[in-house]
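Support request, please re-run this one:
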Amino acid sequence: MNVSIIICTYNRAESLRETLLAMRQVFIPAGLQCELLVVDNASTDNTKEVVESAHLPHLLVRYIHETKRGKCHAYNTGMAQAQGDILLWTDDDVRPPQNWIEGMCRPILSGEFHAVAGGVKMAPHLERPWMTMMHRSWLAETTRLDAESPEDMVGANMAFSKQVLSKVPAFDTELGPGALGFADDSLFSCQLKLAGYHIASALDVVVEHHFDPSRLLRSNFLDLAKKFGRTQAYVYYHWQHNVIPLPHLRMNKRILQLAVQVVAHPKDSRISEGISPAEAELQREFHFYKQYLVERKRPHNYQKFGLVKLPLSE
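Re-run finished. Output below.
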């Protein structure tokens, strides 16, 4: 059985270097042959040199260049180029545990599952006392997922059989980093489940997330709220075919509520890190309705709960 490990990266050469170093201590189980594909999403730094200088004797390392910006373009290129029967995904800023490959591939190798949701936890030096479940979820931790039956997979630690591509062939390139921001992995997960595939829980197989500390800033959480709202509106309209009555009114109501929030809690807007969950939710909802007004002018990109994007929307 062959396994393709896929990392999609953009302008994070030094972080990627540390992730590749961490790959040295990952154990490859007997009977598995593994390759590592690094898909460079048109980086302008020294990503190519970092990949080509990586010394991983137990892994065949392949550098792939994808010129179309957007992580989902890189995802789809990685899937097309992968030679493995199992596709194992992670990011360029994580540290996998020694048992990572075995733990993530076991449910698929058993024949019982076709997809696996792994665990993601932020590095200890990034932990803050103000963090709630919302903050952790927005920073890609998997503590929100049901340990028995995960709702979806997080791209920093997920795996699936290449067989699933016969029914769900691609990630939506209008979603994810470099496009609307998020929901690429969650929509793909929902489509897998509707196609009849089951997602196994391997949340105890945890990768450690070493993201840049700037992601803790209030300004970043405001950006996250915008991206979550926009991507949720896209899925809500194009995939779920939901209709929102009076969206202009709902958006304007959120504007007023945000103004009240600023007056009632003036200190919240002056903090350097984090954001209050109440403000974050109002920001997300505002951007949701704003994006919905944009998306509803377009034809639907999917049949309702479709597995494949409609040709005219590509």
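The radius of gyration is 20 Å. Residues 11 and 43 are 5 Å apart (CA to CA).
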